[in-house]
Amino acid sequence: MNTENRYPVTASLFMLKEIKHRQEHVNRGYQLLKRKAEALRIRGRQAASELASTQAILGHTLREAYISLAAIKFTNGESNALVLENIGQAQVRVLRIPENISGVSTVSLQALEETVGIGDTFRYAGLGAGGHRTGEAKKAFREAVRILIKFASLRNTCILLDESIRTTLRKVNGIEKVIMPKLRNTENYIMMEMDEREREDFHRLKMVKAKKMRSQARANKLRQDNKAGGAGESTEVVTPTAVMAANTRSVECFTCILRCNSSLSSTTDSGDFNKPICYPHNWDDDDLLF
């Protein structure tokens, strides 16, 4: 197995348990990241749809506000310098509300209109002519500011969610394509090595057992041969019949020797050397000394 597709570990039961423990944690993290990615996608789609609708409404509101501003300029003339000179405290403020979307921290912007304690400088503007159009322009621009704040909040949320979705999907793909195959290959490698060691140990034990059995069989055979040989020698020595037979053969041999000596002396005295010499019947040629 290629070592690049697995972790460099030693094949043992401890490492096998450790790899299985890691696989459980990785699978749990993989499932959590997939759920997080799905939740972020759903929330991102909702934010994108709200952003598109808000963008369309914002365009329409700004167009109406600038049309009303053009009507004021037509009736009252240029009033930008007057407006800039009489700017006081802001009547529309932005409230930052932190949100947590599946572990992603975002900020939601909300428009707050404060009218208590703040005097409107242009409350009596346009009394002589065009007062109605001035009020409509003020309302249109306030609505445009409110929608613009909502649009900015949704756009910021979409950007953060898009980055989080990319990061989460990158982690999910890394776990699925790199980490989990490496862990599986490592587990397979450890199992193969342990099986191979088990087969080697089993074969070694079989060889040792066969050698022991051969040595025991050889020892038993030698023991039986020794018992059989010892039993045969003891019967030859102890049996009295064998002793009597040996004594009888020795007496007969001695008698034959005497008879042959007497016949030899008689033949030599008479001068006849053609008669055969009598030897014991149980002597061979190798027993003769002459």
Automatic annotation (TrEMBL):
Ion transport in keyword set: yes
Residue span of region Disordered: 216-235
Alphabetized GO MF terms: proton-transporting ATPase activity, rotational mechanism
Domain of life: Eukaryota
InterPro entries given in the database record: V_ATPase_D
Keywords, in A-Z order: Ion transport, Transport
Matching Pfam families: ATP-synt_D
Function: Subunit of the V1 complex of vacuolar(H+)-ATPase (V-ATPase), a multisubunit enzyme composed of a peripheral complex (V1) that hydrolyzes ATP and a membrane integral complex (V0) that translocates protons. V-ATPase is responsible for acidifying and maintaining the pH of intracellular compartments and in some cell types, is targeted to the plasma membrane, where it is responsible for acidifying the extracellular environment.
Family: Belongs to the V-ATPase D subunit family.
Name the record gives this protein: Vacuolar ATP synthase subunit D
Organism the protein comes from: Chrysodeixis includens (Soybean looper)
Lineage, uppermost ranks: Eukaryota, Metazoa, Ecdysozoa, Arthropoda, Hexapoda
